[in-house]
Design brief:
Layout (H helix, E strand, L loop, with lengths): L1 H14 L8 E7 L4 H17 L3 E7 L2 H14 L4 E4 L6 H5 L7 H6 L2 H4 L8 E2 L2 E2 L2 E5 L2 E6 H7 L7 H13 L3 E4 L6 H14 L2 H8 L8 H14 L17 H5 L3 E7 L3 H6 L7 E4 L11 E3 L2 E5 L7 H11 L2 H11 L14 H11 L3 E3 L2 H4 L2 H16 L4 H15 L2
Helix pairs in contact: 1-2, 2-15, 9-11, 9-18, 18-19
Length: 410
């Protein structure tokens, strides 16, 4: 697909050689120099340049951590025309500060309200849309299909079925879940799904927006469910000493059978020696009957800074990268999902399953540490990890998080 996109760009560029050149510019700040993301981005830029040969495009590519540090400065002092950033609460400070451009009219003009309907809530604040997502990926439960088949375990659809599967695995000497909580965010993935399935999408959003206390009965109910996995020993031991990559080893060697994780992890399973036949995926099971199924689907997006110089060209680029053909090619290259519902996805079974999962979801959460402000997210995730190790400290953890919440959301 990448080669096809590059060929298309070359053909368009050849056809446009006779077009007059103008001094129009477009400056884009991108935040991922890793090979596949960089290749997908650069191919899309080349295709855009071929279609708009009068626009001179400059790209600046930095790593994500450096980009996170730099964005506050360059939005104020030397804004590009487009910058990569994240939807949900992570865009809120820049929206509230008037540093991102309202592009609701572009969404209307390009029909994005329909083709991006599933992801629209995460791009919306104050009833307006602020950016265009180019990629996202599903979370859920990846599992050892060979182990499940050997023990006669079906994919769980409900909480009771999940607990029954865990019990059977444990009886046969297999830890149900691997996880590595050394860097905290993996525990947030489990918390988010327990909350989404127990209480629903609105409660997830209200909690991360500071509208619900952690001592609220609804949030306590989430930890009660979590305790049903912790107390019987359904998580791998010593998880606080392991990164998410370290936690792949017990999954690969058959010591553990399930992993609550994002689709980016599939390569790690393959690199650890597992075949596609040995691993499979299912959405996190239902807990409270009737609660609409929302999913964790972190997205990456582009925004127009309010101080951009070439906003018309920036709008052309956002409209271009929203197109289903561009999104299809880009996400085939990086192995993720196109947010445009009219795009096509590759034949990879995990991409196909993920597309079905997120495109039929009632809402898409951006993940706890993206939806909550940074200080709250750090404290919350520290509390999640502590709870997984010492569940008897729950009251103290929740009261501490309430105090931090009061300070963070003043």
């Amino acid at each position: 697909m990448l080669k096809s996109l590059m060929r298309t760009a070359a053909i368009l560029a050849t056809a446009a050689l006779a077009a007059p050149a103008f001094a129009n510019e477009l400056i884009i700040n991108f935040d991922d120099p890793n090979p596949a993301p960089k290749a997908g981005f650069e191919a899309a830029v080349e295709a855009f340049k071929a279609e708009y040969p009068d626009i001179s495009v400059t790209v600046n590519i930095n790593d994500r951590e450096a980009h996170k540090t730099a964005i506050r400065n360059f939005l104020s002092a030397d804004a590009p025309d487009i910058t990569a950033w994240y939807p949900g609460n992570r865009m809120a400070p820049f929206v509230n500060a008037g540093q991102f451009e309202d592009i609701s009219d572009l969404w209307e003009q390009e029909g994005l309200n329909e083709s991006f309907a599933a992801i629209k809530p995460t791009m919306t604040m104050d009833g307006k849309q602020w950016g265009v997502p180019y990629s996202y990926y599903q979370w859920g439960i990846y599992y050892r299909k060979d182990i499940f088949d050997n023990l006669g375990i079906e994919e769980p659809k409900t909480w009771d079925e999940l607990l029954a599967a865990c019990a059977k695995l444990k009886e046969n000497g297999i830890t149900p879940f691997t996880i590595g909580t050394k860097f905290l965010w993996t525990a947030a993935g489990v918390f988010d799904y327990l909350n989404l399935r127990t209480n629903g999408y609105e409660v997830h959003n209200d909690l991360t927006a500071g509208k619900i206390k952690y001592t609220d009965d609804r949030i306590r109910a989430v930890f009660d469910k979590w305790k049903e996995l912790i107390e019987p020993g359904y998580f791998i031991e010593n998880h606080a000493t392991m990164s998410w990559q370290d936690a792949v080893a017990p999954f690969a060697n058959g010591e553990a059978a399930m992993y609550v994780m994002g689709n980016f992890s599939v390569d790690a399973y393959k690199n650890a020696g597992l075949t596609y036949d040995q691993i499979d995926y299912f959405p996190f099971p239902e807990i409270t009957p009737g609660v609409p199924r929302a999913e964790e689907a972190p997205a990456d997006a582009f925004f127009i800074p309010s101080n951009a110089t070439n906003k018309e060209n920036a709008r052309k680029f956002l409209a271009f990268i929203a197109r289903p053909d561009i999104q299809s090619a880009w996400n085939e290259t990086i192995g993720q999902l196109p947010p445009n519902s009219n795009a096509t996805v590759g034949d990879d079974k995990f991409i196909q399953q993920g597309f079905e999962t997120v495109s039929t979801a009632a809402g898409l959460a951006q993940f706890y540490d993206r939806d909550a402000p940074a200080e709250m997210a750090k404290a919350g995730m520290e509390g999640f990890q502590e709870f997984m190790i010492k569940p008897d400290r729950l009251d103290a953890i929740l009261k501490r998080l309430d105090k931090i919440q009061e300070r963070v959301y003043k």
